[in-house]
Amino acid sequence: MVFQYSKKVMKYFLRPKNVGKIKNADGIGRVGNMLCGDIMYIFIKVRIKRKKEIIKDIKFQTLGCPAAIATSSVITELAKGKTLGKALKITNKEVIKKLGELPPIKYHCSLLAEEALDEAIYDYLKKQKRKIPVLLKKKHQKILMSEKKFKKKFG
Q1: What is the C-alpha to C-alpha distance for residues 131 and 32, in angstroms, rounded to an integer?
Q2: Are 120 and 43 in contact (CB under 8 A)?
Q3: Which of 36, 39, 54, 136 is catalytic?
Q4: Is 109 marked active-site?
Q5: How high is the pLDDT of residue 1?
Q6: What is the pLDDT of residues 78-98, one digit of tens each?
Q7: Shortest CA distance to 140 belongs to which of 154, 126, 130?
Q8: Residue 54: partners with Cβ closer than 8 Å, 6 or more residues away
Q9: What is the pLDDT of residues 61-77, one digit of tens each?
Q10: Active-site annotation holder among 109, 112, 116, 143
Q11: Domains in the chain with CATH codes
Q12: For the whole model, what pTM was predicted?
């Protein structure tokens, strides 16, 4: 199967935004896909403003294809400055929409980006000993199950 990335995807791949690691991050999300080998890390710094928790800073480190890097960059742009509640509502469909298009065979990259952000927020809430929303708990459990399968298969 032959596919081509759009100019916008290539722009985000070649000049991604928010690349790097946040020292002493408030939350860290790590996800991977055992079929394609992509690994994403999202780091968040949270600030409390008017009793609302806002993603003050967000960065990513991704090992993967152009789509994985582009979707990681886009999710950081979508989440930066948002409350945790609004950031949790960001979907992979929004990531694809912001990119303009993504080859269907690469949609899983946008889902990984969504999951990495969710995991960073989960990690933050857990560290703060806060109640974790039911849907976020379910997403986290699903990610843990995938990780277990990966470790079982590849050691």
Answers
A1: 25
A2: yes
A3: 36
A4: yes
A5: 59
A6: 999 999 999 999 999 999 999
A7: 126
A8: 46, 47, 48, 81, 82, 83, 84
A9: 999 999 999 999 999 99
A10: 109
A11: 7-154 (3.90.1010.10)
A12: 0.93
